[in-house]
Amino acid sequence: MMSSPAAPPILFDRGLLRVRQSRALGLGAATFLLDRVAEDMAERLHAVLREFTEGADIGTAGEQVRSVLAGRVGSLASVELPDAESRGLGLAPDTLDLAVSALALQFVNDLPGVLAQIRGALKPDGLLLAAMTGGDTLTELRQSFAAAEAECEGGVSPRVAPFADLREIGALLQRTGFALPVTDVDRVVVRYDSAFALMADLRRMGATNILVERRRSPTRRATLLRMAQLYSERFADSDGRIRATFDIIWLSGWAPHASQQQPLKPGSAKASLAEAVKRLAPE
């Protein structure tokens, strides 16, 4: 008897994410990353020489993407990512020719499942274009917190979410059935007066710690002060301002279609590698 696949691990408290995003709106949302991604998305789609009539914006918080794509897509529905992964996205099969998502997929517990659902909702030759934080995002904050906790409290607690890297995302696109997958990274380095100014911006992004395994008790003042000191010592420029890295991973893939470029069949090459090497070798 075949066993059912294991459920994905629950890393993120998505209910808490919604609370944090609502709080961010009340504080006055910091949208500079989302604004950048939305403008970049519009430019990338402008380079695609085809019309999109039925689209969906998957999980993006805010109206930036739908605003910049107005007029580029006939209809762009807003689709929320559910708190419970088992609920699904509610997308009908073969109904979309475009799916976009901006800075939302990094907080999904079952990313392969979500990508597979998007792939199933795309018509043949439909496009997925998405951006998510990944790579070395907030590596400076992660290192500074880890060093401060190890020094002040004798242990380290999860502070910054684990981020996928470029190769993992590319492989995941292939695994979930996308053709012609492409990934690249846009590294954004933002400078702040202090680690506390960075943390205030993260609160206004709704991007503070939502890990299920996060520490529930408040961080000790001594630990916070030591973290800020270490951050300044290790990651400050000559003017005293600190650096914060945000790696934006861009991913795109197409629902397969007969018109797309296909890989060569094994053995169909007209010249052998051995012959090519022979021609390049010195006499």
Word description of this protein:
Helix 5 crosses helix 8 (221-235). The protein has a six-stranded mixed beta sheet, sandwiched between helices. The protein has 283 residues and is an alpha/beta fold. It has a domain at 14-136 and 162-195 and 245-260: Rossmann fold, CATH 3.40.50. 36% of the residues lie in helices and 22% in strands. Helix 4 links the parallel strand 3 and strand 4 (122-134). It has nine helices and six strands, in the order ααβαββαβααβααβα. It has helices at 14-27, 32-46, 64-68, 111-121, 139-153, 166-175, 195-204, 221-235, 273-280, and strands at 52-58, 73-79, 96-102, 122-134, 179-192, 242-254.
Question: Nutshell version of this structure?
Answer:
This protein is α/β, with parallel strands linked by helices and 283 residues long.
**Total DSSP helices:** 9
Q: Percent helix among the residues?
A: 25-40%
As residue ranges, the low-confidence spans are 267-283
CATH topology heading of one domain: Rossmann fold
Structural key phrases:
single chain; alpha/beta; 283 residues; Rossmann fold; 6-stranded mixed sheet; 36% helix; disordered C terminus
